[in-house]
Amino acid sequence: MTPTMLSDLTTAAVGGPAGNYIEARTEAEIIEAVRSADAAGEPVLIIGGGSNLLISDDGFPGTVVKIASEGFTVSAEDSCGGVSVVVQAGHNWDALVEHAVLHAWSGIEALAGIPGATGATPVQNVGAYGSEVSQTIAAVRTWDRERNAVKTFTNSELKFGYRDSILKQTTVNGSPRYIVLTVEFQLPLGRMSAPVRYAELARVLGVEQGQRAYSNDVRREVLRLRASKGMVLDPADRDTYSTGSFFTNPMVPEEVA
Ligand SMILES: Cc1cc2nc3c(=O)[nH]c(=O)nc-3n(C[C@H](O)[C@H](O)[C@H](O)COP(=O)(O)OP(=O)(O)OC[C@H]3O[C@@H](n4cnc5c(N)ncnc54)[C@H](O)[C@@H]3O)c2cc1C
Questions:
Q1: Which of 88, 148, 159, 208 lies 20 to 30 Å (CA to CA) from residue 27?
Q2: Does 114 sit in the ligand 1 pocket, CB within 6 Å?
Q3: The pLDDT value given to residue 254
Q4: What number does CATH give the domain 6-67?
């Protein structure tokens, strides 16, 4: 059988063959795939949208689990508390942002255009244009590979920092201890955005930093700004093939620098 090439699963379009490839479409399938690989002592690579991964041309010799669970459910909605939405890990992030803006769920509009799956967003506390997911995540349900059990983290337990979280801190050699199954967001209801914190975005929207704008306008201007910087993936334009920006500076030992 022809092996699955990881170059087909990453936005940088590089990466050799997967030893064993499983596309997991439900929470139960994700847990089963990871549990069996762990029981067999095989290395595990988790892939969402493949937009923050650079994989060697040698490929990955163990089990590659593609997180392909989709959809979301609204668990509560009222004008006081806002909406509480539980999103499957494989659900496309940008599609969720678009849905949120169209349905007047406020708070994630400035995160439009970020590629990848929702389950990866808490891992590095995805952020852009003055917003980050830590501002709206209520809880993250995970599979804990070390304890062979489901573990749910509240926002404060996730130890969010700049492009950082406990999910990233406990990842060893690219293999996470906690596999994100669902992410719960708590979003205020309304057509207005969260306060616009990013100067360039405030300028194009014609508001002061810290003021709100229509979420629809925020999303549109963020997508426009991102496209002007080659930060919106376009399969027809190879210059947009990337893994995004360098968000944190690499630490280089003195003898190498
Ligand atoms: C053009 C472009 C623009 C970008 N812009 C931004 C930006 O503005 N801000 C920003 O923060 N990032 C940005 N990124 C980086 C990237 O899109 C985000 O980090 C995104 O959240 C990665 O999602 P993914 O599903 O593609 O993750 P992948 O690349 O598939 O995986 C990334 C890491 O998370 C792990 N992972 C994935 N899913 C799970 C899961 N369910 N459970 C546990 N671990 C998991 C993987 O093992 C891997 O270590 C950009 C990337 C590109 C290509």
A1: 159
A2: yes
A3: 82
A4: 3.30.43.10
